[in-house]
Amino acid sequence: MAGFAHLVLSPVQIAAGVLEGISALPYYMSTSIHDINKGLIDAQASITLDDTYDSAYGHRQSEVNEEGETGEVFRRMKHASQTFQVVLKKYGVSDYDRYILTSIDTANDAGYTLFAVAYRPVDSIRVVDKYDASKIREFKKGDRLFYEPFQKDAAGRPLDRIVDWAGMPRETIKTQKGQSMLLTLAANAVIENRSGDEYWEAEKQWIAREFRNIVETKMAQVGKKLKI
After folding, report:
1. Inter-CA distances, 89 with 47, 80, 92, 165, 211, Å
2. For the segment 40-76, what is each residue's pLDDT rounded down to a tens digit?
3. From CA 123, how far away is CA 111, in angstroms rounded?
4. Distance CA 81, CA 101 (A)
5. Comparing C-alpha atoms, which of 22, 28, 116, 107 is closest to residue 66?
6. 228 exposure class (CB count in 10 Å sphere: 0-12, 13-18, 19+)
7. Which uninterrupted H or E stretch holds 140?
8. pLDDT tens across 90-133, in order?
């Protein structure tokens, strides 16, 4: 994150970041939320920061300081997903409650998390344990591990469809500003019907502790698109 500490995006870069999905999130962090929102409006993004603050937190973006803090942050993907679904519902996504935000936390100790936006058609799952293939696990919406992606269920049937994904420093989403940008970029990815099928291979590498290469490669790709 040190490379982004003083990076302020131009309107053109703000617009370009939306097209890159949630992997662009770290690049936004030194730009004020008011400038980001204006850039999203100019880019005709389906969901702006103002939309997210209004639906998720009950505040117009104009009422919030430049750091975007209203005292509301989520700490688990269950709560992140609930807030995300509120944003999608407000926009009019018919199956809003089937989209969840997920995380793979195996590199949390090194300061990195693998996030994804997933479409899951069911409220409970029976799956092979990601970390011990000899075990079958069952999870419901209230369970923490329900908010990890699963390509197939225990019977081998397709389960989750990945819309978007990114590996990034954990500090990026510790603030409400970062979280609101995650919600905004993720919601636009859903509306744009993005596809992130390459996630599954990246997840295997991530769990195998090859996370730094994934983060650096993805960030370099985004930086090139933003001309940074």
Report:
1. 12, 14, 5, 21, 33
2. 999 999 999 999 999 999 988 888 887 878 888 999 9
3. 30
4. 5
5. 28
6. middle
7. strand 136-140
8. 999 999 999 999 999 999 999 999 999 999 999 999 999 999 99
CA 117, CA 99: separation in Å to the nearest integer?
A: 7
- Listing DSSP states for 69-97 in one string gives -SS----SHHHHHHHHHHHHHHHT-TTGG
CA distances from 31 to 37, 48, 72 (A): 10, 15, 20
Residue type, 92: G
**Three-state SS at 108:** helix
CA distance 62 to 58: 12
Q: How far apart are CA 182 and CA 27, in angstroms?
A: 12
The tally of CA atoms less than 13 A away on the side-chain side of residue 73 is 13
Dihedral angle, C-alpha 167, 216, 221, 46, nearest 10 °: 30
The secondary structure of residue 53, as a DSSP letter, is: I
* HEC-encoded secondary structure of 34-52: HHHHHHHHHCCCCCCHHHH
How far is Cα 53 from Cα 216, in angstroms, rounded to an integer?
A: 30
Give, in order, the Cα–Cα distances in Å from 182 to each of 14, 26, 45, 209: 14, 10, 14, 24
Tokens 């696990």 belong to 137
Q: Residue 8, SS3?
A: coil
